[in-house]
Design goal:
heterotetramer, A mainly alpha, B alpha/beta, C mainly alpha, D alpha+beta, C: mainly alpha, Methane Monooxygenase Hydroxylase, Chain G, domain 1, 4 helices, flat, D: alpha+beta, Cytochrome-c3 Hydrogenase, chain B, three-stranded antiparallel sheet, 16 helices, 8 strands, 12% strand
Chain lengths: 352, 220, 123, 391
């Protein structure tokens, strides 16, 4: 590895030009980290989900696997799923059925790389970063629709359509609530938004993240994110009591598990986007940059876990909306509210 | 009984007044009004119960398969007491329906005797919508055809099922193979204790009621 | 290599990471799982009875209506984002703001019209 | 087209075009689809199947298919002695096994002319109401799940367990007590039962408040259930719908008050009614009836008389000839036995009138023209037990 950065003896112009130290090695490391982070975040959040819900429901949740409070429960579940037979129904569109979970997973991976974990810890750093995060998050919708359609099952199809309708309807309030943040920060780059929040000071003295001035946008974001994640009260696509298991009805084994990995990992990424845009990401007030360089990732994860807690709290509390009520809520309330919020933000921005 | 409940005698009288000859018999056994009407007055009787006697609540419709044997005929002759219960003395299928009044609290049992060969009764679905499923059950369980029923399909049993299980002539297969061992437990009275063979099976049953239900063997 | 292409190359490579992750996990699972497929197992699930009729039916037209609405508003969002990024740095701030208000206003009127027409009624 | 002029045709076309203009969203033709819901479905309470013909999301008609659990109890009753039959009737509605025994035992006692001692009447009342609480708490939890709220069921089941423990402490069985005998009970109450009951009833009262907050007070729950699946009183009665289902539609019938049995005439309770007749009203009535049941149990525990737990009955139960219809207010509605005896130890015919059978039979009518999204809310709110439907 020590000689990797130089390699002049290769004699080739191409080999000489490849920026090993600057680009390739960090990239490989990042790829490995992200490849681990996706299943790891799903494991941690899945475990939190089990335990939090259990305690909110006056029970203990997993207690046996691994000894201490059932910490290994999800690992055991994963191993179990690995040994399950992968059944593709006769009537299914087999290639589409087989590849649908991959779309969902790729979508999660791509959202994951847009998140900055520290002042200099980011995989990519592009101008339209927020925009990209939202764009690649939509790839998951395609996977879900594909899964619902290719299963050749009525429940799956209905689940897939419900999911598509819902994800479309709540994509808009999500986008519009983020527009308000972008207007304040004047940039779509996530690092830029974080540093803008560091520089945003109330009365010129108290630095505050955007959650305070943009609390309307934040509320819309939380609700819309909950819907994007298909969690109660917006869990129509899965609606166990109606559609059995929604678009994942025909899935078995590890392919089925991918939907869950993706579900929890996107919980993580969605909370991360929220944490970056509204809670200041890795940034903490009055803490020097050098320290943040070290503790940044932990600060971000703490903020993410807080938002995840909010998501799970909502999930365990509310019953499910009906499909029409869901659409009505998005189109008649969330979208107008976020449009008005953009207007007010614009006026204030200009007046200030 | 609460509020404005009609006494059983009022109910039976009301039926006699309206249906006249069509009422075969009435009874107020156990404080429950029961009228037996001819099959052609079946629907009329229920309409009367609903419209005049305010019996708005449909309880059930079912049937009873009456099979007489020597013991029963003897009983029937012995006690013709006033107000006593008298079981039908001949083989017949009897439709039983019960409706009651939620407002006043009384109820009435309406019956109709049908012959065992080709039993037919009119549907009640036009009077009480809830009769639908009950009549389907009667059709498959007793083989009584309900004329005018909107969906005369089987309710519980599969389409391939043959026979009408609730008829007394339909023997319970499990009892054919082996008499119900539970019968032994209650036979503790010395005078009619059963004789058991070495395997613990009942060799001879002294009670005619029981032997009717669990015939030791029958060539089929 | 410029920074710009580096970033997009990275994105492309991470698509491969996602697919690789998927492939690797499915691959490992394939080594471990049994494969004994029977006709009953491969049948379509419909609550334990044989599936009736064709699963592939037309879905209700309202999905199309909502999809159209979505496209309209999504394009709106695509316009708003760049505007939001630069609005503060343009000299004539009020004009910029009013222009966007007109744009959003047209869409809001359209939304109100659609709502009035009953298109947002699901049933 | 022979008799129609071209002017009429164009007029029709104009009308059609206008209709299309004003009502785009209302109905464009979508082909019908037949959807099986059940027998293996998470929310059918057992093996139950609904064959729904749906157009878009609108239900054209729905046919309930029952009989998956038909166990032929009426036939089996004809070959069993009276004490053996309680074992069967326990299993009709498995959530409230004890409450099922009551009408059968009462029918047998009535024909035999036996009156159970007062203490027995009180104990039977207490246990029946406990079965009612257990059933209703299960309903409130499960209905929450069906509407999509995953938390209430655990709270409901936690305290339901206390009630089941009490039933078990008396009878030895949680679901199938088989505790009644003709003329009395198998045994007296165990020591300390009354004190434990008081504690459990407080817990039930608390969980009722919790459930009211969590489910009935929730806006989304109201949105999903208010005005959905309305059963008009007249139709409901004609179909034989009973219990909380019909009381929610404005009927004030309650057999415990109208045709008193057990110790009910001496106890203080209110008949819960509502006039709205929708899914919400049915759930609300069940919640209130849970509270009333607690009241009955507390009153009965206070007034519990001393005395024997068995009347003087012959060693071999022989029922004299007769026919009687004995009904009781079960948790699910009117549970009745039409008992025909020709003398002897075995009934001649037992017609079991179960509440769920009639309650389910209104489904085709009730679901016609509703939307798929409401189907589960409506089916769940009727609250039937498949054992009770199929017998």
């Amino acid at each position: 590895m020590t000689t990797a950065g130089v390699a002049p003896h290769a004699g080739s112009v191409l080999a000489y030009d490849i920026p090993w130290v600057d680009f390739v090695i960090p990239l490989v490391v990042k790829m490995l980290v992200i490849a681990l982070l996706v299943p790891l975040s799903a494991l941690v959040l899945g475990y939190l989900f089990l335990k939090l819900l259990a305690h909110m429901q006056s029970r203990l949740g997993p207690m046996e696997a691994g000894g201490f409070h059932g910490w290994a429960q999800l690992i055991a579940d994963g191993l179990k799923f690995m040994q399950k037979e992968d059944v593709i129904p006769e009537a299914a569109d087999k290639p589409a059925f087989a590849m649908a979970p991959a779309f969902v997973l790729v979508s999660v991976v791509l959202v994951m790389i847009t998140i900055p974990f520290g002042p200099s810890l980011n995989v990519i750093d592009i101008d339209a970063q927020v925009f990209m995060a939202l764009a690649v998050a939509s790839i998951g919708t395609i996977g879900v629709l594909l899964a619902g359609w290719s299963s050749a099952n009525k429940y799956s199809l209905m689940g897939g359509f419900r999911a598509a309708g819902q994800l479309m309807a709540y994509e808009l309030p999500l986008l519009l609530s983020i527009v308000a943040v972008v207007m304040m920060a004047q940039t779509m780059n996530m690092q830029g938004i974080i540093s803008a929040q560091g520089g945003f000071e109330l009365f010129g003295t108290i630095p505050i993240p955007y959650v305070v001035p943009q609390f309307v946008a934040f509320a819309v974001f939380i609700v819309a994110a909950q819907a994007e994640l298909s969690q109660a009260p917006f869990d129509m696509p899965f609606a166990e009591s109606e559609l059995v298991s929604g678009y994942a009805t025909e899935y078995t084994g590890f392919r089925y598990l991918f939907f869950f990995i993706a579900e929890f990992a996107s919980n993580f990424t969605m909370a991360a986007i929220g944490a970056v845009l509204f809670l200041g990401g890795w940034w903490l007030p009055w803490v020097p940059d050098g320290v943040l360089e070290v503790i940044g990732p932990f600060v971000l994860v703490a903020k993410i876990l807080f938002l995840v807690f909010v998501f799970l709290w909502m999930r365990s509390t509310y019953p499910r909306l009906r499909e029409d009520q869901l659409q009505r809520f998005a189109w008649k309330w969330l979208i107008p509210i976020s449009l008005v919020n953009i207007g007010i933000t614009g006026v204030l921005k200009v007046v200030w | 009984m609460s509020r404005l409940a009609l006494v059983p005698e009022e109910i039976t009288t009301s039926f006699r007044d309206v249906l006249g000859e069509k009422v075969e018999s009435t009874s107020t056994f156990q404080g429950q009004a029961a009228v037996v009407v001819t099959p052609d007055a079946w629907v009329v009787a229920f309409t009367h119960a609903r419209d005049v006697l305010a019996c708005d609540f449909f309880t059930f419709v079912s049937a009873i398969d009456w099979v007489t044997d020597d013991a029963d005929e003897g009983d029937a002759v012995e006690e013709p007491e006033e107000g006593a219960y008298v079981a039908p003395a001949r083989d017949l299928l009897q439709m039983v329906g019960r409706v009651s009044s939620t407002g006043q609290g009384h109820g009435v049992t309406i019956k109709s005797n049908l012959p065992k060969d080709a039993p037919v009764i009119d549907t009640l679905t036009s009077v009480y919508a809830g009769a639908d499923w009950h009549e389907r059950e009667v059709m498959e369980m007793f083989g009584i055809s309900v004329s005018g029923h909107p969906h005369p399909e089987k309710l519980y049993l599969t389409d391939e099922f043959e026979g009408h299980p609730l008829l007394k002539s339909y023997k319970l297969g499990a009892r054919e193979v082996k008499p119900w061992p539970g019968d032994v437990n209650v036979e503790e009275m010395p005078e009619d204790a059963p004789v058991l063979d070495d395997a613990g099976n009942v060799v001879e049953l002294s009670d005619p009621e029981v032997s009717e239900e669990t015939p030791p063997e029958e060539s089929s | 290599m410029s920074d710009y292409y580096e970033n997009y190359l990275t994105i492309f490579l991470f698509v491969l990471v996602g697919l690789g992750l998927f492939g690797a996990m499915i691959g490992v699972a394939r080594l471990l799982q049994p494969r004994r497929q029977t006709a009953a197992k491969l049948a379509t699930y419909e609550c334990g009875v044989e599936a009736e009729g064709d699963w592939w039916t037309q879905q209700h037209v309202r999905y199309y209506v909502f999809a159209l609405l979505f496209v309209v508003f999504d394009i709106e969002a695509a316009f708003i984002f760049p505007w939001a990024t630069v609005m503060g740095s343009i000299a004539d701030a009020w004009a910029v703001l009013v222009e966007m208000f007109v744009f959003i206003g047209i869409l809001v009127v359209a939304l109100a019209y659609v709502m009035r027409k009953g298109l947002l009624r699901w049933m | 087209m022979a008799g129609i002029t071209s002017a009429e045709v164009s007029a029709q076309a104009r009308v059609a075009a206008h209709m299309a203009d004003v009502g785009v969203a209302v109905e464009l033709e979508t082909p019908e689809m037949t959807l099986n819901i059940g027998p293996q479905h998470p929310s059918t309470h057992g093996v139950f199947r609904l064959v729904a013909r749906v157009e878009g999301e609108k239900i054209e008609d729905v046919e309930p298919v029952i009989g998956y659990m038909h166990r032929g109890y009426e036939k089996l009753c004809e070959v069993r002695t009276y004490p053996q039959i309680t074992t069967l009737v326990n299993r009709i509605d498995w959530l409230s096994g004890y409450a099922n025994e009551i009408p059968f035992i009462l029918a047998a006692e009535r024909l035999m002319g036996i009156e159970a001692p007062p203490r027995v009447q009180y104990i039977r009342t207490i246990l029946t109401e406990m079965a009612r609480i257990a059933t209703f708490l299960a309903f409130l939890g499960v209905y929450g799940i069906e509407i999509g709220a995953i938390t209430p069921i655990f709270h409901a089941f936690r305290d339901r367990e206390r009630v089941l423990d009490l039933i078990e402490s008396v009878t030895g069985g949680r679901f199938h007590p088989n505790f009644n005998r003709v003329g009395g009970l198998l045994d007296d109450l165990p020591a300390g039962f009354l004190a434990e009951t008081a504690v459990a009833m407080d817990a039930v009262k608390r969980v009722c408040d919790d459930l009211e907050d969590l489910i009935l007070g929730n806006d989304i729950f109201r949105e999903r259930t208010v005005g959905v699946g309305v059963i008009p009183l007249e139709r409901g009665l004609a179909c034989g719908v009973s219990g909380a289902n019909i009381r929610a539609s404005g009927c004030t019938v309650d057999i415990r008050r109208d045709e008193p049995y057990l110790a009910y005439p001496e106890l203080d309770f209110d008949v819960v009614t509502d006039t709205r007749g929708d899914c919400f009203a049915r759930a609300w009535c069940r919640l209130q009836e849970t509270r009333e049941a607690v009241r009955i149990i507390e009153g009965a525990c206070k007034a519990l008389p001393a005395g024997p737990f068995m009347a003087k009955v012959p060693k071999v139960i022989q029922v004299p000839p007769g026919e009687v219809y004995q009904r009781a207010e079960g948790p699910l509605g009117e549970m009745g036995f039409y008992l025909v005896s020709r003398g002897g130890r075995i009934p001649y015919r037992v017609k079991i009138r179960t509440p769920s059978f009639s309650n389910v039979s209104i489904l085709p009518w009730l679901l016609e023209g509703t939307y798929m999204a409401d189907l589960i809310a409506i089916v769940g709110s009727l609250y039937f037990i498949l054992g009770d439907v199929d017998r």
